[in-house]
Design a protein that fits this description.
By secondary structure, this protein is mainly beta. It has one helix and nine strands. It has a single domain, classed as Roll (Pnp Oxidase, Chain A), CATH 2.30.110.20.
Amino acid sequence: MADFYPPVSFYYLVSFNGISGKVIDTRFQSVSGLTVEMKTEPYKEGGENRFEHILPNRPKYSDLTLKRGFAKDSDLIQWFSDSFVSMQVVPVTLDIMLLNEESEPLVSWNVVHAWPKKWSLSELDAEKSGIAIETLELHYRTFSINT
């Protein structure tokens, strides 16, 4: 059996299907929120008072958060703007791909029915020499893992 080495987490790509083909809309400083949790429901059985059963209910997915340097000419930001200004919320599917050293996908996550929930810009501070970071928050329905 070949030696297994866990992949690095810093080489990845995000692809928004149907929004943009620009490189600026595929590169992010960080991606977080690929999380699913099984919600539960307590069930008290009649006649058995020592404990209660905990039953699985349905999965709950957290919001997806993408961070990058502020991008002026971005189709992705236009999509966000259309959603917030004119209430034209158009859900999309996106792919997050973890890449190997040859820029080939090792694993990908297909995020379904994602729509803009929040946009924010980092603090503008004349006393610091930092990069302006924009944070894009998306709500999504579900995701699947493709290996």
